[in-house]
Design a protein that fits this description.
- This protein has 131 residues and is mostly helical.
- The protein is built from seven helices and no strands.
- It is elongated, with a radius of gyration of 22 Å.
- The N and C termini lie far apart (57 Å).
Length: 131
């Protein structure tokens, strides 16, 4: 691996194609350990900004399904269904929501956001119920 000072400095330009994107990622890899305050570090920051802009335009992140987000949140933090029930206030209601038999209400969304920290933006997304 090249040291940051050994990287060949090409002129910066917008990322317009997949080839430009891949080349930018490769250069970021080479510059990743550049010391802060150096021209290489400045270049790294600029390239990261350009890559993020390209990704946001061409590969936007899709919001997750609200129920999948709840399940992921519980699992990733080692929480159980009982934790969800405590937030929602009812065992039966928690089961209905997880089984897509009942929708998330505004009050439940607020509780999940405030008590568990799940993004309200994720929870308000439309999803399919299984009536």
């Amino acid at each position: 691996m090249q040291k940051p000072s050994e990287v060949i400095m090409y002129s910066l330009k917008p990322i317009r194609s997949q080839e430009d994107y891949k080349a930018s990622l490769k250069e970021i890899e080479h510059l990743f350990e550049a010391p802060q305050g150096t021209p290489e570090f400045d270049r790294l920051e600029i390239l990261v900004t350009l890559v993020e802009a390209y990704e946001n335009k061409h590969e936007p992140i899709v919001m997750p399904d609200p129920i999948e987000a709840i399940l992921y949140y519980l699992e990733s933090r080692g929480l159980t269904q009982q934790h969800l029930e405590a937030v929602i206030g009812s065992h039966d209601r928690a089961i209905e929501i997880l089984n897509r038999k009942a929708p998330l209400t505004l009050e439940i969304i607020r509780q999940l956001n405030q008590k568990l920290g799940i993004s309200a933006q994720v929870l308000i997304q439309p999803y399919t119920l299984a009536y």
